Amino acid sequence: LSNDDQIQAGRDLARQVQRVSMFKSARHVALYLANDGEIDPAGIVALCQRQAKHVYAPVIQGNRADARLTFAPWRTIHPWVLNRYRIPEPHVSLRDHRRPEQLDLIFMPLVAFDAAGQRLGMGGGFYDRTLAARGHRKVFRKPRLIGIAHEFQKIDQIPTDAWDVPLDGILTNEGFYAL
User: Fold this and answer.
1) Cβ(108)–Cβ(165) under 8 Å?
2) Distance CA 93, CA 73 (A)
């Protein structure tokens, strides 16, 4: 996509999220910084800030084999540092980080998705490892999980593995798929 196409898709994404009830009721929301052509949720970050929602960014904790995510406050007054993948992360004290269950909503990047809500990520497994406990509970109230993608990233079917964490919905620049 051209830079202009990416900017427009991000704007459309921010318009679409305003229709999602999970977003409307959320107070603690995690988003990511767009990387490698991912749809940019910057408009959602700005919307959260205007609505006085608490916004967090993922931070990789641990070594490659078992690394998980925590979520640090998304504040421009704090420095951001590049992680091992050269993606900026907020640099704040660990005591200010949140665990997933302390969040209401996590927006997750994806490479592709299908109508059943299966998600194909970038292959690092960070979200699946971090959210693995969700698959072991019969009732799971939070965080709610929404994948974010361009509409053209929808494909017919994605194979699943036992460790894949199911989503509650997928938001694209053209609409929302409730699951």
Assistant:
1) no
2) 10
